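Morning - FE2/S2 (inorganic) cluster inputs below, output right after.
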Amino acid sequence: MTDQYLVTLTVNGEDHELLVTARRTLVDALRHDLHLTGTHVGCEHGVCGACTILVDGAPARACLMFAVQAEGRDLRTVESLGSPDSPNDLQRAFSEHHALQCGFCTPGFLMLAEGFLASRPRATKAEIREAVSANLCRCTGYQTIVEAVDDCASRRRCAPDTTEGEATPEPGQNDTPRPA
Ligand code: FES
Ligand code: FES
């Protein structure tokens, strides 16, 4: 019989206790154990980015992590952004710019962009293009995805600032790591 481990995963602000085998991937735990099926699985090799979530605020490939490695980390999936009835501003921008066709890659792009904009709110279009190149889209093309992320970033910059003391990155400084 395969050994199982009790882990607590903190997902979208809620703690979940799970019994998992050591080799249970994080993406399988999210989808099959917690029924958070918004996170998609494509290549399972860390290439396509369909499984991108935020781990401690940074984009990461959930297919490359084991569930046991995620204990104590702050996990955010696409379900944290909004709902069909109440999409967040990034999701609305994707819709307005037609930044998806089949939508399979979209949850990964949304979480990649959400993490990127959180750390690089003043990113240039070229930096956005570089950031979204980490994920693969087979049917939309990248232009509308770049337009959507750029539009969302512009609108967020124009919105009233509710944060205090947040450091403003230097122009051209891109310190966002590529997803693991
Ligand atoms: S499923 Fe392709 S990178 Fe994870
Ligand atoms: S919208 Fe179909 S793969 Fe990206």
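Note: The chain is about 30% helix and 15% strand.

O.
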